[in-house]
Amino acid sequence: MSTRFNYDRLAELYAGYDMTPGASEIQGMLTGLIATGSEPKSDELMAVLSDLAYDGQSIPTELKNLLQQQAEEIEHSLGDHDLGFRLLLPEDGEPLPERLNALAGWVNAFLAGYGVNQQSMATLSADLKEAIEDMVELAKIEFTEEGGEEEERAYFEIVEYLRVSAMMCYTELGRKEQPANQPPKILH
């Protein structure tokens, strides 16, 4: 993610708009939606975000622009061949309980976004099905407030697993590639 979309800055911006979810949750929701096929600039995406993240109210133009920019950047980073996608979480120096709460919010929001577009797991690859099932289990975990070296290592492993799982979901369900035998559509 670009530095313009860092956790603290987005948390501040979203709070200024009285958004119900936090910055990690918004990114998780957008990621789940985009990884399953939602278009970043679509009116449908904004309608879903209005319902899920803005209490069904009309999203102000400035906030809509910010969300669309973030959605576009998420889509770009999910498809990045250099594996550039990163979860939007508090900085590593923040207390572990704060980071764990943001991580739990990200997972729950990703699953909410995922569920909007993908109601059946029957057609998923075995790897993606396992990743989604793992996310469901992670969403149920109640994190302790102890922050030793082992917990820090586990946190980083979970973050990396979720990062790769989101990219795998996008590759399997969200990527819009033009078939090799079909030329791109040209609008006149």
TrEMBL record:
PANTHER family: UPF0149 PROTEIN YGFB (PTHR37528). Belongs to the UPF0149 family. InterPro entries: YgfB-like, YgfB-like_sf. Pfam families: UPF0149 (PF03695). One of its GO terms (cellular component) is cytosol. SUPFAM superfamilies: YgfB-like. This is YecA family protein.
